[in-house]
Design a protein that fits this description.
InterPro entries: Glutamic_endopeptidase (IPR053168), Neprosin (IPR004314), Neprosin_propep (IPR025521). It is built from four helices and 23 strands. The relative contact order is 0.18. By secondary structure, it is of the alpha+beta class. The structure holds 2-acetamido-2-deoxy-beta-D-glucopyranose (NAG) (2 copies).
């Protein structure tokens, strides 16, 4: 009703516009063919965008340049996945069924909370999910529709005792045991990226399956700086999943169907602010991923206490090995080094400083915990955590326990500058 009325009222002023469009269309027809290929490409991009961006009931322009669409939750992209054809969106489990922590978290004097930039500009109504709108420029930067939002094939989480040698470099901590989730508080930085297709990310990996086979299941979440994916150098909340070792399944965020979002407050892919600075305030965010013991879905929560909330879940239907439990958790940083200039990349990891610089200068993960079979969070003992850095002259990692900070439990510092004449040629 309302829309017919609006259309009727607008029609008279549209007439000159319609005429202009008709003239323009005629001109296009008269033009020779060269534009045809570009037009076809444009048409392909537009169709792809139509699949990704679902119609919104409200859109919010964020100061960082993003448009956040409030999409009715039952129309979200996740449900386009063939395995979710009969999926019913789950209501978030009540607080009482979330894994409980034995640690008492004190509000840290030394670190503050980072949050999502777009919250300053508005909020999405109940019943919708907040989704960062994908633009044509986002897709065009990827160079190909099929590559957009996916990881390059060789990008696998490394088997902890084998160097991968595929250009992806890590500085991580990990623990191998039967787990049902993991949690950590991660400092937020905006590392410099040298190449347009480079990235730097800080995340947790929840893994099951074999590293050498094609059945590795991985659930991933954290922050990433990726000029290719987002067109800027801000850190952004991201999710990822694969059920076949990064071959045919999986992608970032909602760029392919799969991750079911339940939050109208937290937009995956949206930028996080403020960002920590060397010698200045430290800002961090808490991520918890855990398996609903009854239904087998893997939930993600972002933040804790007051500001925190459930973001959504990876449905049990998506996975094979992870439908039971995870066998390894990894926390830490990853960059890609293509040696494009003949030297190691100068892309930074974390703050761009080595682990030894410690609090206030190096990036950290604190309060490392895993979820047990009885759905409770347990602090990971320091000696159950191993660390790995493929090239410690470029990026390194150093684990610690409390070190006088009080309440940090098992934690580690990690990162580095990448290329430098002393240790990373
Ligand atoms: C959904 O339900 C239909 C009808 O019961 C069934 O044929 C189909 O296999 C189901 N799809 C999935 C992915 O479970
Ligand atoms: C993978 O490695 C394990 C031991 O590390 C081995 O037992 C298994 O056969 C390997 N699988 C494949 C497909 O290579």
């Amino acid at each position: 009703m309302a829309s017919t009325k609006r259309r009727r009222r607008r029609r008279p002023e549209c007439r000159p516009l319609v005429a202009a469009v008709a003239v323009f269309a005629l001109l296009l027809l008269l033009l020779p063919a060269p534009g045809a290929e570009a037009a076809a490409a444009h048409y392909g991009v537009q169709r792809h965008l139509d699949r990704i961006n679902k119609p919104a009931v409200r859109s919010i322009q964020s100061a960082d340049g993003d448009m956040i669409d409030c999409v009715p939750s039952h129309k979200q992209r996740a449900l386009d996945h063939p395995l979710l054809a009969n999926h019913t969106i789950q209501t978030p489990p009540p607080l009482s069924l979330m894994p409980a922590s034995s640690l008492v978290y004190r509000q840290q004097q030394s670190s503050r909370r980072a949050w999502q930039t777009w919250h300053h500009a508005g909020h999405c109504p109940r019943g919708t999910v907040a989704v960062r709108r994908t633009t044509a420029a986002d897709v065009l930067r990827a160079g190909s529709l099929t590559r957009f939002g996916r990881k390059k094939k060789q990008r696998r989480p490394l088997p902890p005792d084998v160097a991968t040698g595929n250009g992806h470099e890590h500085a991580i901590a990990y623990t191998a045991s039967e787990v049902y989730g993991a949690r950590a508080t991660i400092s937020v930085w905006a590392p410099a990226i040298e190449e347009a297709n480079g990235f730097s990310l800080s995340q947790l990996w929840i893994l099951s399956g074999s590293f050498n086979g094609s059945d590795l299941n991985s659930i991933e979440a954290g922050w990433q700086v990726s000029p290719e994916l987002y067109g800027d150098s801000r850190p952004r909340l991201f999710t990822y999943w694969t059920s076949d070792a990064y071959e045919a399944t999986g992608c970032y965020n909602a760029l392919c169907p799969g991750f079911v979002q339940t939050s109208s407050r937290i937009a995956i892919g949206a930028s996080i602010s403020p960002v920590s600075s060397v010698g200045g305030p430290q800002y961090d965010m808490t991520l918890l991923v855990w398996k609903d013991p009854k239904l087998g879905n893997w939930w993600l929560s972002y933040g804790d206490g007051a500001g925190g909330g459930l973001v959504g879940y990876w449905p049990a239907e998506l996975f094979t090995h992870l439908s039971d439990h995870a066998t390894m958790v990894e926390w830490g940083g990853e960059v890609v080094d293509t040696r494009s200039g003949g030297t190691h990349t100068a892309t930074q990891m974390g703050s761009g400083r080595f682990a030894a610089e410690g609090f206030g200068r190096a990036a950290y993960f604190r309060n490392l915990e895993t979820v047990d079979a009885d759905n409770s969070l347990a602090a990971v003992p320091l000696d159950a955590i191993q660390t790995l850095a493929e090239d410690a002259g470029c990026y390194d990692v150093r684990k610690a326990y409390d070190d006088g900070r009080g309440g940090w439990g098992a934690h580690f510092y990690y990162g580095g500058p990448g290329h430098n004449p002393e240790s990373c040629p």
